[in-house]
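Margin note: ligand = 1-deoxy-D-xylulose-5-phosphate.
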Amino acid sequence: MTKLSVNINKIATLRNARGGNVPDLLKTAKDIQEFGAQGITIHPRPDERHIRRQDAYDLKPVVYTEYNIEGNPFRPFLDMVLEIKPTQVTLVPDGDDVLTSNAGWDTLKHKEYLIDIIAELKRNEIRTSIFVDPDLKMIEGAKATGTDRIELYTEDFARQYELGNKDGIKPYTECAVLANALGLGINAGHDLSLDNIAFFKQNIPGLLEVSIGHALISESLYLGLENVVGMYLQKLK
Ligand SMILES: CC(=O)[C@@H](O)[C@H](O)COP(=O)(O)O
Ligand SMILES: NCC(=O)COP(=O)(O)O
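Resulting structure:
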């Protein structure tokens, strides 16, 4: 079975737009778990554009499924996750100024750096995952870092799938086969959606977890709008 971890960054984006507490991030996290999701993912960024540092702490007692915190392991991020002790930390090599995550780790170039950080997280009983492009050399490099899992960066697959090119899955399947052989757990995420998730899952052996945010929250708007517009119309009769 593949676990669904819902990324709630976009709920915080909406909340921050008005400065209040609507939508309520903690209530949303509770509801998502009650609806059956097996995890909650957040990706606090240094500029706190969506998830704030305090949110990461406040979510700890609320997330009773798997709590996954993603981010670039600069010292303030590392100190925060070592205090919170989520189920899993996913290391992502984001620049400060990126719109969203746009590349995986070069696991060869950053091998020693990753070894030290992963060891520190694992000493604190936190499962580790590292964000990687679907490149066999990067998967081999990931193994050498001591990480428990990799997270396959799926944007390229999603773009290709949208264009009708199903061969875009091939490097992902090859990397998954290698990761399984090396004993690395496999997560995946970025731009996965209701359209592409079934095909992705069918072609990735041993897929343990997907984290999905942008599409899932957008789809929730599309699928919920009719109901809510109808409710307003009822009240306005
Ligand atoms: C690590 C990853 O794949 C990203 O999708 C990220 O978690 C999303 O971050 P934003 O919500 O800031 O775009
Ligand atoms: N790790 C990927 C993630 O958490 C969500 O990515 P996206 O669905 O918002 O693109």
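The mean pLDDT is 97.
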